[in-house]
Amino acid sequence: MSLKKRYLKTKPVCKVTFRVSKQAAKSAQRINVVGDFNNWSITETPMKPLKSGEFSVTVDLKTSRGYEFRYILDGTQWENDWEADRYVPSSFAGCENSVVDVD
User: Fold this and answer.
1) Which residues form the domain of 82?
2) CA 102, CA 62: separation in Å to the nearest integer?
3) Cα–Cα distance measured from residue 2 to residue 8, given in angstroms and rounded to the nearest whole number
4) For the chain, how many structural domains are there in total?
5) What is the secondary structure of 25-92 as a DSSP string?
6) What are phi and psi of 99, to 5 degrees?
7) Interval 38-86: pLDDT, tens
8) Which CATH number is 23's domain given?
9) Can you give the pTM of this predicted structure?
């Protein structure tokens, strides 16, 4: 799993590419990135399956804040990003959310 950030020079937006490796995707048929940027919708931000077996999606995020997120595999299995900028406690006991910081 990984995050790639590309800041726009013309407006306060960062294009963040979320990527799930083939190994992390396991045998998932679909993966969505879910976070406070999409009101934790498990359907709003589907990731595109790549020929390599990876999944990827790019999201425009306003700068100057952090966004909590997780991945959901096949609508049932929640996963964090292994390369997130940081982690924060989730409102669900015993788990954490990944955070991507866009300055």
Assistant:
1) 2-102
2) 8
3) 20
4) 1
5) HTT-S-EEEEEGGGTT-SSSSBPEEPTTS-EEEEEEEESSEEEEEEEEETTTEEE--TT-SEEEE-SS
6) -130, 135
7) 999 999 999 999 999 999 999 999 999 999 999 999 999 999 999 999 9
8) 2.60.40.10
9) 0.94
